Amino acid sequence: MTITIYHNPACSTSRNTLAIIRQSGEEPRVIEYLKTPPSRQRLVELIDAMAMTPRQLLREKGTPYAELGLGDPEWSDDEILDFMLARPILINRPIVVSPLGVVLARPSEKVLDILPNPEIGPFTKEDGEVVIDASGKRVV
């Protein structure tokens, strides 16, 4: 089964998501989207598969969102896509694609909803937050 993660290794949420996928027994295709951004068509497909709008996928924190005035509701979906393609840092992440669906894995444990083997055993995020305890119960 092929799983793909649009990943930013500098992002702890993205690293945690990748770790959850690997702990499930899958070795995903990792696309560092800042180095290899998706095409416009692929980005639209991902947004559609997540039942989102381009605006909902915009990342604000740590991006030129404010300086570009992207909070202005006047920007069309096509214009927002143009900004994302020109500056991939504006694409929120991580996006995970599996045969069971597509999610923006924020928080990282959302990826469990589309993994073929979500029973991954105990898992703790980098920051110490327990996602699945020693008994296998989801905590968050």
Offer a quick outline of the entry.
The protein is built from four helices and six strands, in the order βαβαααββββ.
Structural summary, described in words:
By secondary structure, the protein is an alpha+beta fold. Helices cover 26% and strands 15% of the residues. The chain is built from four helices and six strands. A four-stranded mixed beta sheet has the order 2-1-3-4, covered by helices on one side. β1, α1 and β2 form a beta-alpha-beta unit. The longest helix has 12 residues, at 12-23. It is globular, with a radius of gyration of 16 Å. The mean pLDDT is 95.
Question: How would you describe the shape?
Answer: globular
User: Which structural class fits the helix and strand makeup?
Assistant: alpha+beta
Poorly predicted regions are none
Radius of gyration: 16 Å
**What is the strand arrangement across the widest sheet?**
2-1-3-4
Main sheet properties:
4 strands, mixed
Order of helices and strands: EHEHHHEEEE
Q: Name the average pLDDT.
A: 95
What is the number of beta strands?
6
Helix content: 25-40%
Tell me the span between the first and last alpha carbons: 26 Å
Report strand %.
15-25%
Tally of helical runs: 4
